[in-house]
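USER: My hope is that you can spare some time for a protein that puzzles me. I am handing you a single protein, as its sequence and its fold in token form. Walk me, if you will, through where the backbone shape changes along the chain. The protein I mean follows directly.
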Amino acid sequence: MKRYLALLLSVVLVVLDQVFKLLAHAHLKPIDTYPIIEDVLHLTYLENRGAAFGMMEGQTWLLIWGTGLILLVMILAVMIGKIPGTLPNVIVCVIIGGGVGNLIDRVYRGYVIDYIQVRFVDFAIFNFADICVVVGVAALVLYIFCHEFAARKKEGKEQKVG
């Protein structure tokens, strides 16, 4: 049951992402950019036809099929219980939510709508789905490292006792 609640989180994140993108399309596309904090944080409309940082531009079908396959494997892993523990399931579902959000754009529009621009550093314009994927992957890596560290520490204590 917990697995399905985690997948529900993915659905909520996808809906939020799509609402944000619809708002960006309706309100930012006509004006291009809107400063939240001048020269620091802007909402800037961009149609990204590639992957991260515009890589693989023009490879829409490869991105669709590759992303779709990875997402399918992740969804199946959650559904059949291959991911142990509630926290890892939630983290994976955050990644799924972001991936599905951008996949919908690629399939429906042929590009991903990006709208968050950090201007005090030279960085790509991104969106809510990108945040979900990046935060999810970082959290998963951190979880795996911490889990592995704890397991090795426990193993070391058991060897000293035995």
